[in-house]
TrEMBL record:
Descriptive protein name: D-methionine transport system substrate-binding protein
Localization: Membrane
GO cellular component, one term: membrane
Annotated transmembrane regions: 9-26
Pfam family, one: Lipoprotein_9
Keywords per UniProt: Lipoprotein, Membrane, Palmitate, Signal, Transmembrane, Transmembrane helix
InterPro entries, per database record: Lipoprotein_NlpA (IPR004872)
Signal peptide positions (record): none
Taxon lineage: Bacteria, Pseudomonadati, Pseudomonadota, Gammaproteobacteria, Moraxellales
Length: 276
């Protein structure tokens, strides 16, 4: 009987040890997960951010990048609290998203801004564009307005309010060539260029899709408009208590290696720092 009790006590002791070890491992995994900074990104911005993440890791900051292929999911996911921040949109886009939804999201810091252009794989000039040419533009209100302003700069259309960056196709007052517009999601403009006569495009998306030389637009926007710089966005209730995100942003903005990555992805003349 004594021997049985001793064996029973031994088994209980082993079970307790296993339980304690399990709890320790679970706790470490939980802490590791809670110490991880998760940022949702567009694939076209991923490489420079990964360079920053690699440098951040050397400083004890664990950053995980989650890629989204569209421009809706990153804000939905952030608003739900599934990620800590996202990096894919500029302030006008965020303002419009908040106006159309109940998202509680705000800008945390500013990243790179890029020039945009009008590209054609069929024609070498705007004069060569035929009547009824097919023109690709983004389908979201803000970036469509930006595309229309660039088409106006090219003297292909006239807008009712020339300075309104929220203009839509309905706001075109003159269209001499009777251009036919194809609306697609912003990330898809780079691929739609193959089926169009002219396309509004982002250099970094074109470089990622490898559909056209991002350096060879028929026209680039002439402004270094920092309002279109890409933002690090967070929930309105986000608190950077241990300053992980702040430190990560500082690395992104100041690292020579990140600058090299931006030059490689965007083209050294096609991006500029939105934070300066």
């Amino acid at each position: 009987m004594a021997q049985f009790s001793k064996s029973k006590i031994t088994l209980i002791g082993v079970a307790l040890v296993i339980l304690v070890v399990g709890l320790v491992i679970w706790n470490k995994q939980k802490n590791s997960s809670s110490n991880e900074l998760v940022i949702g990104v567009s694939p076209s911005f991923a490489k420079p951010l990964q360079v920053a993440a690699d440098e951040a890791k050397q400083q004890g900051i664990n950053v995980r990048l989650v890629e989204f292929s569209d421009w809706n999911t990153p804000n939905i996911t952030l608003n739900h609290g599934d990620i800590d921040a996202n990096f894919f949109q500029h302030q006008p886009f965020l303002d419009n998203a908040k106006k159309e939804t109940d998202f509680k999201i705000k800008a945390f810091a500013v990243g790179a801004a890029t020039h945009v252009g009008l590209y054609s794989k069929k024609y070498q000039s705007f004069e060569a564009l035929p009547s009824h040419a097919k023109v690709v533009v983004p389908n979201d209100p803000v970036n469509q307005g930006r595309a229309l302003q660039l088409l106006q700069q090219a003297k292909l259309i006239t807008l009712k309010q020339p300075d309104n960056y929220l203009s839509t196709l309905n706001d075109i007052s003159a269209n001499p060539k009777q251009l036919q517009f194809i609306e697609v999601e912003g990330p898809q403009t780079a691929r739609a260029i193959d089926d169009a006569d002219l396309a509004f495009g982002y250099p970094h998306y074109l470089r990622l899709a490898k559909t056209a030389d991002p350096e060879k637009a028929l026209l680039f926007d002439s402004n270094t408009d920092k309002r279109f710089a890409i933002l690090f966005a967070v929930r309105e209730d986000y608190q950077d208590k241990d300053e992980k995100l702040k430190k990560f942003v500082e690395i992104y903005q100041n690292s020579p290696r990140v600058k090299q990555a931006l030059d490689a992805d965007f083209g050294s003349t096609l991006w500029f720092p939105g934070w300066k």
